[in-house]
Amino acid sequence: MDQLLAMRVFRSIVDAKGFSAAAERLGTSHSTISRQLKQLEATLGVQLINRNRRRFALTAAGERYFAAHVELNGRLTFDAITALYSAALAGAGIAAFTRHTVQTDLARGHLVHLLPGYSLGTRHYYALYPQTRHVAPKVRAFVDHMAEHYRER
């Protein structure tokens, strides 16, 4: 389960005052919204919303969970990793990096590891190079090195 997505779904349900309106806002189906909420409730071990066909109401736990939700305003996007890294170091927001990229600044206290139990999932890497009969030795060496490096992870 993508917990951040499930949290966003919960917030949308409450803001939209219903499952159907939340599904429409998020561009998905009512059943997907319902499934995400059930998974979030199972993860948290509490029921967040009392629901039936005609209406829904937040439970006490749902009210506390919603009140604790912090709305992040604004969105920065970067197409250069160095700009993103500089923005994170300057405190401009939250960013996702590989551990290898940030380990020095984490150790120095310049960055803080948020959501330690959260994983972005498995990443796939592809090496694209022209299909030729004879691959240049330096290209073959690089591809082999990267394959070995990521196989270990």
TrEMBL record:
<keyword id="KW-0238">DNA-binding</keyword>
<comment type="similarity">
    <text>Belongs to the LysR transcriptional regulatory family.</text>
</comment>
<dbReference type="GO" id="GO:0003677">
    <property type="term" value="F:DNA binding"/>
</dbReference>
<keyword id="KW-0805">Transcription regulation</keyword>
<dbReference type="Pfam" id="PF00126">
    <property type="entry name" value="HTH_1"/>
</dbReference>
<dbReference type="InterPro" id="IPR058163">
    <property type="entry name" value="LysR-type_TF_proteobact-type"/>
</dbReference>
<dbReference type="InterPro" id="IPR000847">
    <property type="entry name" value="LysR_HTH_N"/>
</dbReference>
<keyword id="KW-0804">Transcription</keyword>
<protein>
    <submittedName>
        <fullName>LysR substrate binding domain-containing protein</fullName>
    </submittedName>
</protein>
<feature type="domain" description="HTH lysR-type">
    <location>
        <begin position="1"/>
        <end position="59"/>
    </location>
</feature>
<dbReference type="GO" id="GO:0003700">
    <property type="term" value="F:DNA-binding transcription factor activity"/>
</dbReference>
